[in-house]
Amino acid sequence: MAMTNGVSHVGLSVTNLEESKEFFTDVLEFEVLQYEAGHHAYVSDGATMITLWQTADQGAAVNVAGLHHLALSVKSIAVLRQIEERMKQRNIRLQFGGIGVKGQEGGYVALFCYEPSGIRIELTTTERDVAKEIPIIGGCGAIEVK
User: Cα(130)–Cα(108) distance, rounded to whole angstroms?
Assistant: First the structure.
């Protein structure tokens, strides 16, 4: 049996605290639990707390050691579509062009994006694309081709 009992919180080092805080609060509707301008913000969706720290000198990349991506669960494909529309309105960088079925992970539906510091975020649901209308995308291990 493991000596730990789940994740307490996830701490992210960001390049622009305000932009990252807005990503989580305005786009994903997280609540601000604690905030100190220019230093840190603690945000939560009610299940997961994320601490944002104004400490990064450069943007994130999946090809260096560290966080590959942060995956968050959403209730349905309909919620994913709402989030995707908000991201498009705010010109948030989407991977794979938007929502897709993760072929290599058994058909889960997901939306991959990059928050303002370049940290890769996956939003996923266990709801399946029964109608087979959503395109197949790379998934968690895929590297973005620019």
Answer: 11
The domain locations on the chain are: 10-137
pLDDT attached to residue 63: 79
Q: Are 107 and 126 in contact (CB under 8 A)?
A: no
User: Does the structure show a pLDDT above 70 at 146?
Assistant: no
What pTM does this model have? 0.90
Of 12, 22, 128, 127, the residue nearest 70 (C-alpha): 12
Q: Considering only CA atoms, which of 84, 141, 76, 85 is closest in space to residue 109?
A: 76
Helices within the chain (DSSP H only) = 17-22, 77-89
Q: Look at residue 103 in the predicted model and tell me its pLDDT.
A: 72
Q: Please tell me the CATH code under which domain 10-137 is placed.
A: 3.10.180.10
Instruction: For the chain, report the end-to-end CA distance as a whole number of angstroms.
Output: 43
CA distances from 27 to 47, 113, 116 (A): 17, 12, 12
**Residue that is written with structure tokens 């948030």 in the block:** 92
